[in-house]
């Protein structure tokens, strides 16, 4: 899952920061290719194959937001009279941020890995 949050820093600068939300980019295919290339024969080959297949699945694409949501968030941060500290963008960003605050590290990692 690609993780994106746009954070406004001061009045004049905007920087990307960690958060959550799946954004539809070429990254998914790049990750799948690298997993197959570097992990195909290793100890985690079965897991790498499963993740690569999931990255290429059509189901994942349906749950991803277009890159324009990131551009829109940056636009709001740059032009806003009083920009927020963070702009959570992408499918599932707000619920995942909320769950991260509520769950233990172990529970959150389990949830995300499924």
Spell out the helices and strands N to C. EEHHHHEHH
User: How many strands in all?
Assistant: 3
Mean pLDDT: 78
Shape estimate: globular
Placed side by side, the strands forming the largest sheet appear as 2-1-3
Structural class: mainly alpha
Could you describe the 3D structure shown?
This protein is mainly alpha-helical. Helices cover 54% and strands 11% of the residues. It is built from six helices and three strands, in the order ββααααβαα. The chain has a three-stranded antiparallel sheet with strand order 2-1-3. The relative contact order is 0.21.
Task: Give short descriptive properties of this protein.
mainly alpha; disordered N terminus; 114 residues; globular; 3 strands
Topology at a glance:
Elements: E1 5-9, E2 13-17, H1 27-39, H2 45-56, H3 58-62, H4 68-79, E3 86-88, H5 93-102, H6 105-113
Antiparallel strand pairs: 1-2, 1-3
Helix pairs in contact: 1-2
């Amino acid at each position: 899952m690609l993780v994106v949050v746009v954070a406004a820093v001061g009045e004049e600068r905007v920087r990307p920061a960690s958060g959550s939300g799946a954004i539809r980019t070429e990254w998914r295919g790049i990750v799948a290719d690298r997993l197959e290339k570097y992990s195909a024969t290793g100890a985690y080959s079965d897991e790498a194959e499963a993740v690569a297949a999931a990255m290429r699945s059509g189901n994942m694409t349906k749950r991803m937001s277009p890159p324009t949501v990131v551009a829109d968030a940056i636009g709001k941060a740059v032009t806003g009279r009083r920009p927020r500290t963070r702009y959570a963008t992408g499918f599932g960003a707000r619920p995942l941020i909320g769950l991260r605050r509520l769950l233990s590290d172990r529970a959150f990692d389990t949830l995300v890995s499924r």
